[in-house]
Amino acid sequence: MPTETEADAPLDAIPPAVRAALQRELAIALPQPQWRIEPLAPGRPVYRVRIGGAAHVVKQSDHPARVAAVASVFAARGIAAVKVRRLIDDWLCLDDLALPTVEQRLSRGIRVDDLKDWMPGLGAAAAQADLVGMRDRNLRNLLVIDGGRFIHIDYEGGFSAGMFDRLARPGRYARYLLRRLFFDVIDAAGAADPAAKDEMFDRFAGGLAEEQRRLSPHGADGSAGAIGWKERLYLRSRMRDTPRTRRLFRRAFEAQRLGSAGTPAEPHDER
Ligand SMILES: Nc1ncnc2c1ncn2[C@@H]1O[C@H](COP(=O)(O)OP(=O)(O)OP(=O)(O)O)[C@@H](O)[C@H]1O
Ligand SMILES: [Mg+2]
Predict the structure, then answer these.
(1) Are residues 201 and 109 located together in one domain of the fold?
(2) DSSP per residue over 9-77, as a string?
(3) Number of domains within the chain
(4) 129-162 per-position pLDDT tens digit
(5) Of the bound ligands, which one is closest to the alpha carbon of residue 143?
(6) For ligand 1, is residue 269 a contact (CB within 6 Å)?
(7) Which residue segment(s) compose the domain that 64 sits in?
(8) 148 and 65 part of one domain
């Protein structure tokens, strides 16, 4: 059995069969690897695991099929994505990207000019989330790469912004993404000046449009890999809709720019 050293969480936080699968998957053949298990989300089974000199994130997922679908769509379309491996049951192993979340980065403080430089990348992240109808886009589910580039993590919320709801209430999801990926970031950074917000939105919208243009030549079936017919249909509807989506974002901005508090919480967005 592996031995436990300096563990922040007990070794058996991760069941033995999952640990065995992880060791197999990573081809770690050390007779007595040293394990260190650090909880990443209090109360939830998400751990940073250091084993045999490597670091990985091991997570029990509520929706492993959605995670696989998002990871395969992102990989097929050249969107920076976390590599995900299925262990056993609903346990996943992700590459540890060793990057701060937007929340962690902002907690150190940010200058307004640097925040402006973030905007095209946040717009691109909105285009990527829109493509797969991804919820749970809070400030802990986006990592900061550098120079205003971002990478989504936590793909459980993928393909959960319902297709029919989007047809019936087309502005709702744009409002949601704008709140999470634009206003929440600005609010957390403490940048409240309305004129600066207008400029920031123009940059955000530019990044959104550019990423949509980059993604659209792939068409609906550019996504190799394990996605089902519903996901394929979803992607197809998103690819047709991009100019309309951009208009919806602008309309959502106009409606929200003067105040930012008070947008109602969305269903499926509690995690
Ligand atoms: N691949 C990764 N690389 C680096 N850090 C990660 C990675 N995956 C998760 N983390 C870190 O662990 C935290 C929790 O992971 P994740 O968001 O996947 O779990 P969760 O159960 O959905 O948690 P939450 O409720 O906070 O969203 C993230 O906010 C991030 O700080
Ligand atoms: Mg999360």
Answers:
(1) yes
(2) S-GGGS-HHHHHHHHHHTT---SS-EEEEEESSTTSSEEEEEETTEEEEEEE-S-HHHHHHHHHHHHHT
(3) 2
(4) 999 999 999 999 999 999 899 999 999 999 999 8
(5) 1
(6) no
(7) 3-95
(8) no
